[in-house]
Amino acid sequence: MEVAGRGQRLQMQEKLRILEDLNMLYIRQIAISLQDTEIQRKMERELRLREGACKLLAACSRREQALEAAKSLLVCNSRVLAYMAELQRRKEAQVLRRTARRPSDAGPADERLPCRGTVCVSDLRIPLMWKDTEYFRNKGELHRCAVFCLLQLGAEIHDTPMVLVDRTLTDICFESAVLFSEAGPDFELKVELYSAGLAGGAAQGSTPRKLATRLSTSLGRSAGKRVRAAMDGGPGSPPGNGGTAPLLLPAPSVPGPKFHLLAHAVLSLAEVQDGFRTHDLAIASNEESSFWLPLYGSMCCRLAAQPRCMAAPVTSGFLRLQQPGTEAQSGARLYCVLRGTDLLCYHGPGEAEAGLEPALTIAVNKETRIRATEREGRGQPHGMAVTNRYGGEEVTHTLLAESRAEAQRWMEAFWQHFYDMSQWKQCCDELMRIEVPPPRRPPAMLPRQGSLYHEMALPGPAVPPSACEGLLLQDNAVSAEIRALLSSYYSDR
User: Fold this and answer.
1) pLDDT tens digit string along 249-258?
2) CA–CA distance, 178 with 160 (Å, rounded to integer)
3) In the chain, at which end, N or C, are there fewer CB atoms within 10 A of the end residue's CB?
4) Strand order in the sheet with 342-346
5) What residues form DSSP beta bridges with 319?
6) Quick one: which of 16, 4, 9 has its CA closest to 248?
7) How many CB atoms lie within 10 A of CB 464?
8) Contact 165, 135 (CB under 8 A)
9) How many other C-beta atoms can be found within 10 angstroms of the C-beta atom of residue 398?
């Protein structure tokens, strides 16, 4: 019986490997047809890392090694699925463009596209809700979990460092900033919290059951459920492929710790604010699970966005400022730079490059009105009149271009700028601060927040006080093999 069962498992694994190979061959053919070597290179790299993580996970003998390998495996799987979905999305867009070449199907010829921008998530905190007997009286069996966050925007996926959580914590904190540099105003940022229960304690339930909802699509379970979650666009999966052939990435049957989806949230442009705020968090587990933690059902973070029209110059060039009642050629010739909510006017490009104070600043915001002006006697567009309301008075600045083509270029830049501001909405009221995260390095230790009663590190000559904030595993917690894998994993980040 045991031999027969082992044989059936081996046959099933072989079938899954064949299925994965066929699916990857299909995806590679799509990448070749799209001539997209960059995304194919990224996917091949993640597949190699996935294979390495599987081997390391099977060979790991220490808990810390196994957790890092299991986390790397989950992240690699998520990225491969995201790249697959992106390739199929591009293929579908290519087919639609070809069919739209017929005059009857063609859309507007001059359809504008909004500029891209940078989205930043920082100071991510998830509050916990322990029972009084567990947190204040420190009673009951200690329950620990390893947790990390996966953040996805389109095909771009980032992960946070992993921390260990027990009842001595009131919050799960991920303070490092995460940047997405190619976001559109219609972005959907998925935040997913994954957890793995650690041996040595049973789950101690304390949150009311109404805060927990059962979720059958958990990434650590069967490959079929994982695929269905991916195709349905559910939590813990990349966007679906639009109803075309399924994206299959069988979960490797490797022994070791498994990370499960604990909670998730989706953030969009409406949640962007230049400040710390609270967002709803959907709980995707129940207190009977070994990886469960008592979540409040909310998370706090700072979500900021910086459209390129606000962070970089939109256009620049020479314009002549015409004074009321004077001739066109009598005004001052200024070097103007359209950036953010201002048209900055300098005496020359050298002042702009040096970052000096502009000679004149003209507001350009959602309330600004711009109309083309014409050269007298010729009827050709020659410049533009920029009108703003200051208090109860309207102020108009007339700017003349050096040629008709130059005037048209400036008008097009203004219209595109107004369109970008209308799409990015509150992000264009003022320039939001974006935190630049430090370069990612292979984790030398696993940050463990909490449990001051169990493995407290005392400051001394050999241990700096900063190392005692929370419980940190020793520097040798991750083996040389894991370090080599993660070094390769983060080398291109």
Assistant:
1) 555 666 778 9
2) 8
3) N
4) 360-363, 342-346, 332-339, 315-322, 393-400, 381-390, 369-374
5) 334
6) 16
7) 10
8) no
9) 20
